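Most newcomers find our protein records easier to grasp once they have seen one. A learned vocabulary of local backbone shapes supplies the integers on the structure line. An example says more than a description, so a record of this kind follows:
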Amino acid sequence: MDSGFYAASAGLKAQSQALEVIAHNLANVNTPGFRGEKTTFQSLLALARGAAANPLNTATNNYGILEGTHLDLSAGTLTNTGNSLDVGIEGSGFFAINTQQGARYTRNGSFQVSSTGELVTQTGDQVQGTTGPIRVPPGPVAISPDGTLSVDGAVAGQIKLVDFPAGTPLLSEGAALLFAPAGSEQAAQKVSLRQGMLETSNVNAITAVTSLIGVQRQAEMMARALSLLDTNLNHVAASELARV
């Protein structure tokens, strides 16, 4: 019975954590450039030291836990906005952003010009160029596929595009910002920019809602199992104490 109680507890915790991940994905389904997270589970064999790992012990002490999450790096869809400061990435790669916490990366190309004339994100963080922040003078902006930004034909700078080697642990920090280990960035290859377009989130709302319902049902089952096991444990405890 103890094994069942612990297994149900581990299962409920894992499903609760999965619910948080799916809810975060759904909350950002309309965030440009957002990369959804996927959960991975693993089995944990909880045996006391020296206990025999026979088939019965293995079956009753094998608990499911959340191993972790990983980013889904598949591309979203490029949609036309008509805004000259909106930029979509075609191919792999990320914009480099300078935040108060340091360098961050994103696929969200919804940019604007700050009061000081710098190209920034919607939250006011600097968009990095190949030689630093980009100052945008007044006038109609043109952005070429290689990221060169010009105003009335005069080049103002080039938007920095980076990529990461396969296996680099990218960490989502909310919305569409990603953290990467220092020194892991490299110049993006085979990538082009599309002015007047934005990349949608790669989260499929229907799939995410379906997953949410399934995980909720699993969590409810674990909660009911815990309640039943708790009732039985209390009953056994009361019966044994009465005999003492």
